[in-house]
Specification:
By secondary structure, the protein is α+β, with helices and mostly antiparallel strands. The protein is built from 20 helices and 23 strands. A hairpin with a 2-residue loop joins strand 3 and strand 4. The relative contact order is 0.14.
Length: 611
């Protein structure tokens, strides 16, 4: 089912050890499949280990992770992940390393895969389940000498263009520079590519797109430009916003036509936009964007060097020309990559609590983040060290409807964005327009009892959107944790959620009456209003989590980075969340994919021109 060959050759030395699983998963009982285990040989060796094939499973991020283990001669002969529906990219980070590592070391003493801790933990619990069935002493397997992954050195440390970061922006830049005839190396500190783009829902604002034409929705780049500028409280750079608005549709078409991104056949109405204009990839997953981009990078033989954290720019004596970038591999070995031009695409700093607190004292460690664990502002620090100009660093966005336990985005809650959900508080009342700006909704939620809200949808909404089907594992986990509840009546679902059932029923009745009237007299709902009258009913608890850092390095409209004194770096460009100046105080939903695509392409082209 999975390609277990890594994008780089990896060799394991020493014995291995159990990944430090998260507390939540470690405490979950393994779900044995003893009935499915095929005992090829009933005889046991002196240790009690029996040859055969055994299946173990455990709950992953979105669904059950299933591992099939073959035991032969009292040894672990083969390990295969036979079921895993966790996020593309994150899955590969585990499948490309851990199964072979266990076979080679006959041990469970390995580190977590950075950025994939939940999937790592599920794999570990599942394989422990299977090995226990086989008669292994799992605790003994966990106590071996530490297994270490070693890497082959990069084939080259020199290229025309060096791109820092293999998220959406970095890969767009790399492919564009390659298309203009330049050699490219991408450095990525995580084990696999994708960054925050991979973890996103993949929605992309694209005014005047093909689906708007089909639905008769009137739009224009100028209206989009106005929405972006006003959505950021007019704090964005008007010139950058203009470039974004003018290039968004072409960027969506470029992803579709040149890089095989499959956009779905429906639009999403993200909060703060004047009209419904955002296309979404099939499966509502950013991995459906990053995977095609990665495939095309590999097809172009663009070198993607993972596990390689960029640390410092090496500057020419003129102070404005980059000669090289220093980087440190996961195993501690240091490298220096030389090039003629460089693109900084390392993302924001949403997962760096210390850096968050530097700019906003309210966003400490009690506030979780939706971001990749790699989103720690490395590029921000590198840019600071060479005197780069910054803008808007104090503007940090929270996403309003996240998992109260993990802080993660919950895509089943996109019922709200498909006009199929309303928000209520513990008292059972609506308190905000559901398609408002993210910051407005977040601030409204934290002012409610228990600093949380509940999202309501019904079976008609679930059937129309198919979100519970497309994200079944996420839904099942929500139910298991008590974050999502279900009831045959409004009163029943409210009681399950701990919401005032009488007031809640009145709120829904009033909403349905406003639907019949055709307008929201309470909060001026800006899109199609749908009644809630089809049982069963669902309520999902939600809280805000840090989601996007609007501030970053300031660039020209050619994506050229600037110094504090206003001069520009001759061969240093930037794109994506590491940049500032576009979104002002607040980013509207789906604008990030447009941003990284438009300016990723510009940065790649500008870098190629600087060679």
């Amino acid at each position: 089912m999975f390609d277990l060959t890594s994008s780089r050759r990896q060799f394991v030395k020493g014995a291995g050890a159990a990944a430090a699983a998260t507390v939540a998963l470690a405490s979950m009982p393994a779900m044995a499949h003893a009935a499915d285990s095929k005992k090829a040989d009933a005889s046991a060796d002196a240790s009690g280990v029996k040859d055969g094939t055994y299946v173990g499973s455990a709950q992953g991020k979105h669904d059950v992770v299933e591992v099939t283990v073959t035991v032969s001669g009292g040894k672990i002969a083969d390990v295969e992940i036979t079921k895993c529906n966790d996020t593309d990219g994150i899955v590969e980070a585990v499948t490309n390393r851990l199964p072979q590592l266990v076979v080679d070391t006959q041990s469970l003493n390995y580190d977590n895969i950075s950025g994939a801790t939940v999937t790592t933990a599920a794999f570990t619990t599942a394989i422990e389940d299977a090995l226990t069935q086989a008669g292994f002493d799992v605790s003994a397997l966990e106590k071996g000498a530490k297994a270490e992954v070693t890497f082959e050195d990069p084939a080259s440390t020199d290229a025309d263009v060096i791109v820092l970061g293999a998220g959406g922006a970095g890969m767009c830049a790399a492919l564009t520079a390659y298309g203009e005839g330049k050699s490219v190396i991408i450095l990525e500190k995580m084990p696999e590519v994708g960054g925050n783009t991979m973890l996103s829902g993949g929605g992309m604002a694209a005014p005047c797109n093909w689906l708007q034409e089909q639905e008769g929705i009137e739009d224009s780049p100028e209206l989009f430009e106005s929405d972006v500028f006003e959505g950021g409280d007019e704090k964005g750079d008007p010139d950058l916003v203009h470039v974004l608005a003018q290039g968004a549709l072409e960027g969506a078409e470029w992803l579709r036509d040149e890089h095989n991104v499959e956009w779905s056949d429906h639009l999403v109405f993200f909060g703060g936009h004047s009209v419904k204009r955002s296309v979404v990839p099939e499966g509502e997953s950013g991995a459906k964007i990053t995977t095609p981009l990665e495939n095309d990078c590999k097809a172009a033989k663009i070198a993607i060097v993972t596990d390689m954290r960029a640390t410092d720019f090496v500057m020419d004596d003129d102070g404005v020309t980059v000669k090289a970038v220093k980087a440190t591999r996961t195993d501690g070995k240091e490298f220096e990559f030389t090039g003629k031009a460089f693109v900084l695409a390392t993302g924001g700093f949403g997962s760096n609590v210390e850096m968050r607190l530097k700019y906003d004292s309210t966003l400490g460690d009690k506030i979780k983040s939706t971001d990749s664990v790699g989103t720690t502002g490395d590029g921000i620090t590198m840019a600071e060290n060479i005197g780069a100009a910054f803008t808007g660093m104090e503007y940090i966005q929270t996403y309003p409807t996240c998992d109260p336990i993990t802080g993660a985005l919950l895509y089943i809650y996109d019922e709200r964005l498909y006009d199929r959900g309303i928000l209520v508080n513990k008292e059972g009342d609506r308190f905000v327009e559901e398609l408002e700006r993210r910051d407005v909704i977040s601030n409204a939620i934290v002012s409610q009892t228990d600093n949380c809200a509940w999202l309501l949808w019904d079976q008609a909404g679930a059937d129309e959107t198919q979100l519970l089907v497309n994200h079944k594992g996420e839904y099942d986990m929500g139910v298991a944790s008590g974050v999502v509840v279900k009831g045959d009546t409004l009163e029943e679902v409210a009681e399950a959620a701990g919401i005032d059932p009488d007031e809640f029923a009145k709120t829904v009745e009033h909403w349905n009456e406003m639907c019949d009237a055709g307008s929201d007299s309470d909060f001026n709902y800006r899109s199609t209003m749908n009644k809630f009258e089809t049982a069963p009913y669902y309520l999902g608890r939600c809280v805000p989590s840090v989601h996007h850092t609007m501030g970053g390095v300031h660039c020209t409209t050619d994506a050229q980075m600037q110094k504090e004194d206003g001069t520009t770096f001759t061969n240093l460009f930037a794109a994506g969340e590491v940049t500032g100046g576009i979104h002002g105080t607040n980013r509207l939903g789906s604008d990030a994919i447009a941003d990284l695509t438009v300016f990723g392409r510009i940065a790649g082209s500008s870098a190629a021109g600087a060679c």
